[in-house]
Specification:
about 475 residues, single chain, 2 domains, eight-stranded mixed sheet, Alpha-D-Glucose-1,6-Bisphosphate, Chain A, domain 4, seven-stranded antiparallel sheet, alpha/beta
Length: about 475
């Protein structure tokens, strides 16, 4: 058996720290993105999940290769406000037990002592050391997340709900655990392609008292009626609808990119109108593609839109988003850069070949990439709710854009690629000129001017910090 111990003191009352861990999605919030873990099933045996609940996890260890973990909370090791323990029932390793101890060190300080014991099916020192190093890295991430959430949690959100679309996508799947951990109630409209709405009833599922899922097909559903006790408390709206722009830009793909942004946004507006929802703030996902191509100068929110397919699409998208102004006190167009996360987007696309030893970049690599870590993006969305200065266009990008050659060189180093290939731009441009020009070789330098003016503190202000958290 191998043992790991970790201790961290937080400047928060023990009741606040303990209650945070009782949040429905605390595990999703604390799990580092690079672990690629998804909760597939929860089984609350009693009223106290931390006492006797069970949970099933699915972890992607390689593309197309996933393993299952079944974890059970140990009721004999549970003491309200003091400790809880989770034990492996079945999984890819032989044994695992994690005891969480909460110690009041003063009226305003709490120490969490974590005790982990584990063993693999084969007792190999190198494998044990690898696991220990992985656990250490995870706990560094956990402490950063927990410190942020405890410092920003709301003791009372007036029972307000956040209405979210696009909740199952890359951004939505990270946003909802954050909102849950900070004390918000969330109702998310889940897109179901084959769902046919009933005029007399809606398809609704309560995950718990704070998380409610409602089936929604924006392409055919114009009359979604949200129950009065919920709609009356919806004060924040987050619109994340939109198909991924990555892929081959056939006529069909381009049509789908436009349609997946415009139609759900129009449908969401009708949902708010039909249910007489008056929001304090609506936040919409937009894109830095708004600024167009090859403007080799520093751009901020006060620059006009550019040219190209993405620029035109984003301009039309924001036009639809701005119709929400009549229903909300503030309306935010969040112009998002390249989102960095090991769970999706650019990193997911290049991870396999880079890990296989083959890294590359296109062209001279002098074009700038405007990026943002997923954790920063979801924090910015939440910050928009209660800061009156967050209104209109806001660039959700790091303050330090990076040239593509430098970015891919750092990724090659991270994934220990053995070979690096510079692909002449003429080759992909011959086949996919528009796509390559607007995404791969796009050369913008974009400033998050309004975030900096409002003193937003980036979790990952530099690319090295971002790559450490992938």
């Amino acid at each position: 058996m191998v043992f790991f111990n970790f201790s961290k003191t937080y400047k928060h009352d023990i009741h606040k720290v303990w209650n945070w861990h009782k949040k429905f999605m605390a595990l999703e919030r604390l799990t580092p993105p690079w672990d690629k873990v998804t909760v597939t099933k929860r089984e609350p045996v009693g009223n106290l999940f931390l006492k006797d609940g069970k949970i099933t996890l699915q972890q992607e260890i390689l593309p197309l290769i996933k393993v299952k973990w079944k974890i059970s909370h140990n009721s004999s090791r549970f003491k309200e406000g003091v400790s809880f323990c989770d034990t492996l029932v079945s999984g890819p390793i032989k044994e695992w037990q994690h005891t969480h101890n909460f110690i009041r060190t003063s009226t305003s300080q709490t120490t969490i002592q974590d005790e982990i014991s584990f063993s693999h099916w084969i007792n190999v020192k190198k494998l044990n050391n690898f696991t220990l190093e992985s656990i250490r890295k995870s706990f560094k991430y956990r402490t950063d997340i927990l410190e942020h959430d405890l410092s920003n949690a709301y003791d009372n959100t007036n029972g307000y709900y956040v209405l979210v679309t696009g909740s199952s996508g890359l951004v939505g799947s990270a946003l909802i655990p954050l909102l849950n951990s900070l004390g918000y109630k969330v109702v998310f409209l889940k897109y179901e392609k084959h769902y046919k709405p009933s005029p007399s009833a809606i398809k609704m599922k309560s995950h718990n008292k704070d998380l409610i899922e409602i089936a929604w097909n924006p392409y055919i559903d114009d009359d979604l009626c949200i129950p009065p006790d919920i709609r009356e408390k919806i004060k924040f709206v987050v619109n994340l609808s939109g198909e991924n722009i990555l892929g081959i830009w056939t006529k069909s793909k381009k049509k789908s990119i436009v349609k997946s942004r415009i139609i759900p946004t129009r449908s969401l507006l009708r949902v708010l109108e039909k249910n007489s929802i008056k929001a304090k703030c609506c936040v919409h996902a937009s894109a830095v593609g708004y600024y167009g191509l090859n403007k080799n100068r520093l751009l901020d929110e006060y620059n006009s839109s550019g040219y190209g397919f993405l620029a035109q699409t984003t301009k039309e998208w924001e036009k639809e988003q701005n119709k929400f102004k009549k229903l909300t006190e503030r309306n935010v167009n969040l112009r998002i850069g390249v989102v960095l996360s090991s769970k999706g987007g650019l990193i997911k696309q290049i991870e396999l070949p880079f890990k296989a030893g083959l890294a590359s970049y296109v062209g001279k690599g002098e074009n700038f990439v405007n990026w943002i870590l997923l954790e920063d993006l979801v924090r910015i969305i939440e910050k928009s709710f209660n800061n009156n200065n967050y209104d209109g266009a806001i660039n959700a990008v790091s303050p330090v854009p990076i040239q593509s050659k430098h970015l891919f060189t750092l990724l090659a180093k991270k994934y220990k690629s053995k070979f690096f290939i510079n692909i002449p731009s003429s080759i992909p441009r011959f086949l996919l000129k528009e796509l390559v020009d607007e995404i791969v070789l796009s050369n913008q330098k974009i400033s998050p001017k309004r975030l900096l003016e409002n003193k937003y503190r980036f979790f990952a202000p530099t690319i090295n910090k971002a790559l450490d958290n992938l």
